[in-house]
Recover the amino acids of this structure.
């Protein structure tokens, strides 16, 4: 059984509150928020202020994905505004072990994201400490891209690797829809991030359809 975490990157920003209430009505538990800095990825999105407003508005778990260089400089700020989960990129952290400790010391759950070209073996010495491994199934930066099929092998590899030894959850993000979501859950995914497939069309219906496939 997996859960769906809608990515607000594809939401209607002028009606964000309404969109979030619809997600709550559809039984969603977690909201995915992509913070893009224009350096690590070629796009710009939100900062801590948006997270703070969303935190005041909803009790959904906030899953904040820092697609940025020097994420260590912003951990405190995102914890202060109420992030429940903070995910940093393996590729962006010179001192990954230290950044994970910092997130956990602040009481948030710690995630590490892997770009499509980065193998799980790069996390060997931190897997004991991470709560989430996030497999990017597109090159990060934009919604609406095509799912990279090979990432199914990465999800399966992470599932094999954790066995009974590690407690991390496997999250997958990018290009996920009604057609490919089943194979991801069968490969071991626990958290499914989706933007376009949730926000294009009827939000509640879309959540219910995906929810019925992954439960
Ligand atoms: O991180 C990203 C994109 O880089 C995602 O969180 C997207 O928001 C997912 O959007 P879809 O691929 O589902 O449209």
């Amino acid at each position: 059984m997996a859960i769906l975490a809608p990515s607000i990157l594809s939401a209607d920003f002028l009606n964000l509150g309404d969109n979030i209430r619809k997600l709550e009505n559809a039984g969603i538990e977690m909201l995915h928020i992509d913070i893009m800095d224009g350096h690590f990825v070629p796009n710009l999105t939100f900062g801590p202020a948006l997270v703070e407003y969303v935190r005041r508005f909803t009790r959904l778990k906030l899953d904040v994905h820092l697609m940025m260089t020097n994420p260590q400089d912003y951990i405190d700020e995102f914890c202060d505004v109420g992030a429940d989960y903070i995910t940093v990129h393996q590729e962006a952290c010179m001192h990954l072990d230290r950044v994970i400790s910092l997130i956990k010391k602040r009481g948030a759950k710690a995630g590490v994201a892997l770009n499509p070209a980065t193998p799980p073996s790069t996390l060997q010495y931190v897997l004991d400490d991470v709560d989430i491994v996030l497999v990017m199934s597109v090159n990060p930066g934009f919604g609406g891209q095509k799912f990279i099929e090979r990432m199914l092998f990465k999800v399966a590899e992470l599932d094999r690797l954790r066995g009974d030894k590690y407690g991390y959850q496997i999250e997958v993000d990018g290009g996920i829809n009604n057609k490919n979501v089943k194979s991801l859950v069968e490969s071991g995914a626990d958290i499914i991030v989706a933007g376009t497939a949730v926000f294009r069309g009827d939000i509640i219906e879309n959540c219910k359809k995906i929810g019925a496939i992954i439960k």
